[in-house]
Amino acid sequence: MATPAAASGPALFASPLGQSARWRLEIGPLIVSFSQVPTLQQIQEKNPAVESGGRYRPSNCEPRSRTAIIIPHRNRETHLRHLLYYLHPFLQRQQLHYGIYIVHQAGNATFNRAKLLNVGVKEALKDEEWNCLFLHDVDLIPENDHNLYVCDQWNPRHVSVAMNKFKYKLPYYQYFGGVSALTPDQYMKINGFPNQYWGWGGEDDDISMRVRFRGMKILRPPVSVGHYKMVKHQGDQGNEQNPHRFDLLIRTYRSWSQDGMNSLSYKLLSKELLPLYTNITADIGTNPQATKIGKGFLSDFGGRDFPRDSNRDFRQEMLRKTPFAKLSQAMGWKDPPPETDKKGEKPTPISENPKPSPGAEKRWKGSAASTNKVEATLETFSDTVASPEVPKRVLKESEKETVQPVRGFSSPPSSSGHAAPSSALRPDSTNRTGARTAD
């Protein structure tokens, strides 16, 4: 039962601006409206328990998680105010010990979301021993209280499963953008985000590949829980579509261990503890790709061209045929079938390739020349990866019946002739969020 909040207590329910707030612990679906833009003063008045730097710790219970929210930002003041207005009460209702970090890119260079996330993670871990890192876009507002901002002990989580921008459907099964969660150990295990993605697009697919390269899987909440509403905006100057994103993606299988947290360089200009968040301003340099890559594409694979199209259906079809699909086939990776939750609702499948739409198939087959070039490129990539990394071993007749197939990474047979069990090669697929329900 809901009762009006006391005058002296924090209004934990962030109702649309202008409407009365109510005290609730678990609400479920939320009403999110962008009809009025709140001021920072109004947000601060609604959240008196938030301490300097955007920190909060529940006073009447042990927090279920120590979560740092990392938000890359530049020229999005309106979006930031909308997010803070809804996010602070949302996190308090979940009884989290949390801190919000806004990472601002200084200068007018092309926007680099991935590198700013690396900067935010490094600076946040200097302040406290956070056990969960939430990487959050500034224009996405959660619409369901049951979407817990906690991490899984074994595998990264992608929580923005259904956005109104995509008609509340997952765009494609490899998608890892929007809002995602990793423990600090998981983040370091994949070497963080890549630093070379300047402009829009590509870095979320890169991180998805890194997760799987390291033997982990992507966990997702049910579609009904992972709802997000996007603040409408026009295209940003300085955040144009990255024309080199496919160039970089196809090199990920070799570059991920050298490009990330271990190669991060930046100049910290300021770190301010403001009433609602910690503001980090950093100079992350400029984009070197305009002269380094140029128009030559896939120089490592003969310089063949690759079609670039911003259409989402076409991109979905392209991603279905990405180097990751070829590499995973060569490496023998295979995800277990999606499990059914307690309520009988199946989570969004992430181990199966979505079927392309009829329009995407027509566009794919529309140009014979482009199709031939792409197929030749992918075949070359497959040969390049499979040959040095996964050498084929010809089995003797006596071994053919004793060697058992292994699900997961390929491994040489033991002295007894049997392959090592898959449980020793990849983590358990059980979802262990460790989140306890509120009292």
Summarize, please:
The protein has helices at 40-46, 77-93, 113-127, 184-189, 203-213, 245-249, 252-255, 289-292, 312-320, 323-331, 358-366, 368-389; strands at residues 3-4, 22-23, 55-56, 66-73, 97-105, 132-136, 140-142, 157-158, 162-163, 179-182, 227-230, 267-273, 278-283. By secondary structure, it is of the alpha/beta class.
Task: Characterize the structure shown.
Residues 336-346, 390-402 have a biased composition (Basic and acidic residues). It is a single-pass type II membrane protein. Keywords: Disulfide bond, Glycoprotein, Glycosyltransferase, Golgi apparatus, Lipid metabolism, Manganese, Membrane, Metal-binding, Signal-anchor, Transferase, Transmembrane, Transmembrane helix. One of its GO terms (molecular function) is beta-N-acetylglucosaminylglycopeptide beta-1,4-galactosyltransferase activity. InterPro entries: Galactosyl_T, Galactosyl_T_C, Galactosyl_T_N, Nucleotide-diphossugar_trans. By secondary structure, the chain is an alpha/beta fold. It has a domain at 40-288 and 315-331: Alpha-Beta Complex (Spore Coat Polysaccharide Biosynthesis Protein SpsA, Chain A). Helices cover 27% and strands 13% of the residues. The chain has helices at residues 40-46, 77-93, 113-127, 184-189, 203-213, 245-249, 252-255, 289-292, 312-320, 323-331, 358-366, 368-389; strands at residues 3-4, 22-23, 55-56, 66-73, 97-105, 132-136, 140-142, 157-158, 162-163, 179-182, 227-230, 267-273, 278-283. The strands form three sheets. Strands 3, 4, 5, 6, 8, 10, 12 and 13 form an eight-stranded mixed β-sheet that branches. A hairpin with a 4-residue loop joins strand 12 and strand 13 (278-283). Helix 1 runs parallel beside helix 2 (77-93), helix 9 (312-320) packs across helix 11 (358-366) and helix 10 (323-331) runs parallel beside helix 12. The chain is globular. The two termini are 14 Å apart. Mean pLDDT is 69; it is low at 1-13, 18-25, 290-323, 326-357, 359-393 and 399-439.
